Amino acid sequence: MDVVMEYMDTYVFDGVYNQAAALTSTTPLPRDSLLRQSLSLFVFIYAYIVAFYFGTAGLSYRYIYDKKQELHPKFLPRQKLLEMACASRALPTITLMTVPWIL
Fold first, then answer.
1. Is 57 exposed, middle or buried (0-12, 13-18, 19+ CB in 10 A)?
2. What would the pLDDT profile of 33-47 be if each residue is shown by its tens digit?
3. CA 36, CA 11: separation in Å to the nearest integer?
4. Is pLDDT above 90 for 2?
5. Which residues of 2-17 are buried (b: 16+ CB within 10 A; e: fewer)?
6. What is the pTM of this model?
7. CA–CA gap between residue 59 and residue 67 (Å, rounded)
8. 9 within 8 A of 28, measured Cβ to Cβ
9. Residues 6+ apart with CB under 8 A from 38
10. How many CA atoms lie within 13 A of 91 on its CB side?
11. Does residue 42 or residue 103 have the better pLDDT?
C-alpha cells in the first residue's frame, strides 16, 4: 500500500492538496501528516471499493443472476435500486473502519 500511495501522492494528491492550500491561503499538508495520510487513504480506498463493488455486482447481475426472480410476487418495486442505495450508504462506514488498519 505504501508504493500505491507514493504514486497516488505524486500524480494525484500533491496537486489536490496544493490547490486546496492555495484556495485557503494556507500551507499544504506535508506528506507525513497523519491527517493527509488518513484523507488520502480514505479517498483511495473509497474509490477502489466503489469500483470493485459495482464492477463485480454488475458482472454478477449480467452473467449469473437469474432475472426470472424479478417476476416473483415478493420482489419489491425498485428493489435493485434500493439494494444499490443501501450498499452505497454502507461504503463510507466500511472505509472508515478500514483506514486505521492500513495506517
1. middle
2. 999 999 999 999 999
3. 15
4. no
5. eeebeebbeeebeeeb
6. 0.83
7. 13
8. no
9. 99, 103
10. 19
11. 42
Residue with grid cell 434500493, as numbered in its chain:
82
Q: What is the 8-class DSSP label of residue 73?
A: T
Q: Closest by alpha carbon to 98, among 34, 46, 37?
A: 46
Q: Return the C-alpha cell found at 39.
A: 484523507
The set of cell numbers assigned to 70 is 424479478
Query: 78: alpha, beta or left, given left = phi > 0 and alpha = psi -120 to 50?
Result: left
Q: What is the residue whose three cell numbers read 464492477?
A: 55
> Given 3-state DSSP classes, what are the helix, strand and coil percentages for the chain, each rounded to the nearest 5?
80, 0, 20
Provide the pLDDT for residue 36. 93
Give the whole-angstrom CA distance, residue 99 versus residue 40: 10
What does the domain layout of the chain look like in residue ranges?
2-102
pLDDT at 67: 87
Q: Residue for cell digits 417476476?
A: 71
